[in-house]
Design goal:
The chain is mostly beta strands. The protein has one helix and seven strands, in the order αβββββββ. The chain starts with a helix and ends in a 17-residue tail after the last strand.
Length: 122
């Protein structure tokens, strides 16, 4: 899926963070840190064609969760020099300036993250 040694060429530091495959198994979302500060950029790869999509989301915490529509991801961002976390929603193909704030934790004694829970009707 990812040729990390090849992707890391030219970088003094290169780490893959979170990874998540869309519900239809067609798109891989993955996080990359190239500065060793746990500041990740999210990238998206079409698993059928191998194409890296144009969407690129900078300054994230590295976690990614897909919505069921295969076009929307949720991610967390941390503003510089703070431990506050903001959770955003991004739709593929749209500008990151249009990302919707879903939740923001401003009390630095707490943290938050995005995850997806399976729900089974009984």
């Amino acid at each position: 899926m990812l040729d990390v040694p090849n992707m890391a060429e030219g970088y003094a530091y290169y780490a893959i963070g979170g990874r998540s495959v869309s519900e239809n198994n067609k798109i891989l979302a993955y996080a990359v840190d190239t500065v060793s500060r746990r500041e990740y950029t999210l990238y998206f790869k079409n698993l059928e064609t191998g194409e890296i999509l144009s969407d690129k989301i900078e300054n994230t915490t590295g976690g990614i969760t897909w919505a069921n529509d295969n076009q929307t991801v949720f991610m967390s961002k941390r503003p510089s020099n703070t431990s506050c976390i903001s959770n955003f929603k991004h739709r593929l193909g749209t500008d990151t300036s249009d990302d919707e704030l879903v939740y923001e934790e401003t009390d630095e004694t707490f943290s938050c993250w995005i995850s997806k829970q399976s729900h089974v009707n009984t």
